[in-house]
TrEMBL record, chain A:
Keyword entries, A-Z: Signal
Highest taxon, organism lineage: Bacteria
Presence of keyword Signal: yes
Protein name in the entry: Transporter
Organism: Flagellimonas sp. MMG031
Lineage, broadest ranks: Bacteria, Pseudomonadati, Bacteroidota, Flavobacteriia, Flavobacteriales
Signal peptide: 1-30
From TrEMBL, chain B:
Domain HMA residues, every copy: 23-90
Name the UniProt record assigns to this protein: Heavy-metal-associated domain-containing protein
Pfam families (UniProt xref): HMA
Organism of origin: Flagellimonas nanhaiensis
Gene3D superfamilies membership: 3.30.70.100
Amino acid sequence: MINKVFPKISLNIPYLKLILLLAISGSAMAQGHGPLYGLQTPTLAKGGVDLNVAGMSLSTETETSYMLRYLFSYGITEDLQINLTTPTMIERLGDAPRTRGNSNMPANGDIEASLWYRFFSNAFGVGKRFESTAIVGVSAPTDDVRGQANVGNSVHAAISTGYASRTWYGWIGGGYQYYFEKGGEQLGDLPYASAVVGYRPNIFMGDYPKPDWRIFIESLAEFPGDNKFEGQMDFTDSRSTKILVGPSFLGLYGAWGISFGAMFPVVQDLTLGAVKERYRLAINLSYWL
Amino acid sequence: MRNIFRIMMIGLFGIGTASGQITKVDQEVYGMDCAPCAYGLERGLKKMDGLQEVRVSLNDGKAYMGLAAENGLKLRSIQEEVKKNGFSAKKAEVTLIGNATKEDGQWYIETANERFSVSQDTPTALLQKLTVGTASISGTVQDEEDDNLSGQWSIVLTKIE
């Protein structure tokens, strides 16, 4: 598909070096200190700022996308956080599956503003807490057509709950993204759910400010609806089912964090015209100001 | 020796007033699980006037603070900073110099801007050492609910200088 907003940039070694340089020297970072793909709960401190830069790739049977994404987050209170994320598309998919990149980053070329509200928090021990967070967001596309359908603005809502400690982590959540009609066409909606288990081995239990690492096993279940076109039969009940599983790793040192991981489909029960995936990759750098 | 000097100075200039200050706080923090959490809390505490040294331990779940010789810092401010970072402030081990008073059989120790009610859980031997006037004490301040930061604390004394 022709990129109508950003120039198409071929992915070559010098460009990869530039990405790496940006990642290392930039003042932007990742997604927080939770999982890479699944919904999570932590919010920033009151007045806290988190900057992220992420590289994402999604591969289907016929093509592969590459994208850089930037995320700015600000803690209005210790329970209320605002986020703004923008993409730089390097290589778009001609036929993109309906999915999200992670809990506050779209996988496609959308610009998204979101609000996180941690409505429940119970810190009951050293390093231990239960908490629940609600997310609402609005998105505007940076492309005109996606998967042969006009792309409209969209709204996203999700809820997640989880447990964190110094050793074990777990989150479950679910969300829904709805695209508005544009020019008589409408992208399919996306209900989804995620579950994540995390573990920090003993060898990474060094006290602050020593670095620590944790590993997550992440899973996503997505049920994307089909696109709709004017004059077409209503395919409201027609949905694909995708289940993806994969590992991710998170390393933290002082104000810095790096996470990377992959997701692989284990179930793809697709409707006619839905896109079969091979894998998703992501790397994310974070800096807390 | 330093405490004796402080007591002498307070004795000279502060007897009969509510002068005095906290000099050391080991604040228990619940819910802090990661390096950026500790970094954020440490940075927030370091910005507070009156704090001379700050060390945060994830494994202990504590913030260890040494306060400047002259400070007007409240325990309440420290606990509010903990809360602002999204965690719960629990018990605190404090060392302070304050003015001890006794009202209706209840001992109180006051700094310039906070009042500590001496708990009945304090060992009797220590309570018997307490006298009206300037006191340099250490003790454990009981956990207060996050939304009930009244500025008045209950303290179990562990040491009287």
